[in-house]
């Protein structure tokens, strides 16, 4: 409706200009300039993607999916905290051995063995985590990617702990100096330790997905305020 009104107003304005302008060349130049402005505006409008909107039913579905994800992520974060705690414990064991030349190697072995058992339990639990079907297909695919990355991360952690424990029983370790033993542990960390758990892209995509629901709620709230 607004577009029609603007078109009629433009035609009327051009007719008035044509009648009262003394120089027809100026009118032609003006029309060409106006045509260029409308052409550029049209191209810009076409290049802009229309803003995605959702209706009330879709908003409710998104809210349910968001709640399911929130519940899942709260439990998942506990596993991440456990992995972080175990990884910090491993580095503490290695650091204590590095700084203490007289540290009993049998004590260190027992510490790594206990940590390995604990890490195996967490590793098994990580593999039991599932994508909650209530989160929907799009969000579910992102959660599945997070779980696979977490499984690989847990695998790398347990591999590092196991290899560090195993090297203690080797002949080369027993014959090595303390400095050489420290280098053996460092080599294992460089070779087997996980670089990091990089799930920021998936988390960001999930938050953007649920942002549609927030935008809808904000617009609805503003509309309701304007009506009252």
Give me a quick take on this structure:
The protein has 228 residues and is an all-alpha fold. It has helices at residues 2-20, 24-47, 56-99, 105-128, 137-167, 171-175, 178-192, 200-227. 13% of the residues are buried.
Description:
By secondary structure, this protein is mostly helical. 83% of the residues lie in helices and 0% in strands. The radius of gyration is 33 Å and the shape is elongated.
Q: What is the CA-atom radius of gyration, in angstroms?
A: 33 Å
Termini Cα gap: 26 Å
Q: Total helix count?
A: 8
Which structural class should the secondary elements be placed in? mainly alpha
Estimate the mean pLDDT confidence.
81
What fraction strand?
under 5%
Series of H and E elements:
HHHHHHHH
Kindly state the number of beta strands.
Answer: 0
How would you characterize the largest beta sheet? none
Extract low-pLDDT stretches: 215-228
What overall geometry do the principal axes of the alpha carbons give?
elongated
Helix percent reads: over 70%
What tags apply to this protein structure?
228 residues; mainly alpha; 8 helices; elongated; disordered C terminus
Task: Outline the fold blueprint.
Blueprint: H1 2-20, H2 24-47, H3 56-99, H4 105-128, H5 137-167, H6 171-175, H7 178-192, H8 200-227
Helix pairs in contact: 3-4, 3-5, 3-8, 4-5, 5-7, 5-8
């Amino acid at each position: 409706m607004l577009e029609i009104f603007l078109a009629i107003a433009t035609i009327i304005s051009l007719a008035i200009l044509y009648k009262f302008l003394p120089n027809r060349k100026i009118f032609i130049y003006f029309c060409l300039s106006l045509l260029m402005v409308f052409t550029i505006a049209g191209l810009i409008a076409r290049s802009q993607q229309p803003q995605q909107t959702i209706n009330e039913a879709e908003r409710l579905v998104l809210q349910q999916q968001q709640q399911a994800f929130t519940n899942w992520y709260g439990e998942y974060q506990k596993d991440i905290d456990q992995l972080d705690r175990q990884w910090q414990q491993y580095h503490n064991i290695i650091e204590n051995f590095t700084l203490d030349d007289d540290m009993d190697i049998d004590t260190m072995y027992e510490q790594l063995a206990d940590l390995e058992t604990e890490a195996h339990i967490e590793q098994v639990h990580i593999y039991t985590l599932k994508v909650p079907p209530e989160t929907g297909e799009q969000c579910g695919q992102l959660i599945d990617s997070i779980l696979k990355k977490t499984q690989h991360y847990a695998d790398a952690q347990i591999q590092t702990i196991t290899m560090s424990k195993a090297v203690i029983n080797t002949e080369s370790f027993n014959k090595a100096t303390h400095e050489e033993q420290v280098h053996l542990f460092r080599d294992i960390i460089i070779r087997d330790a996980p670089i990091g758990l990089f799930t920021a892209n998936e988390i960001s995509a999930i938050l953007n997905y649920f942002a549609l629901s927030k935008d809808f709620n904000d617009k609805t709230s503003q509309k309701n305020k304007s009506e009252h």
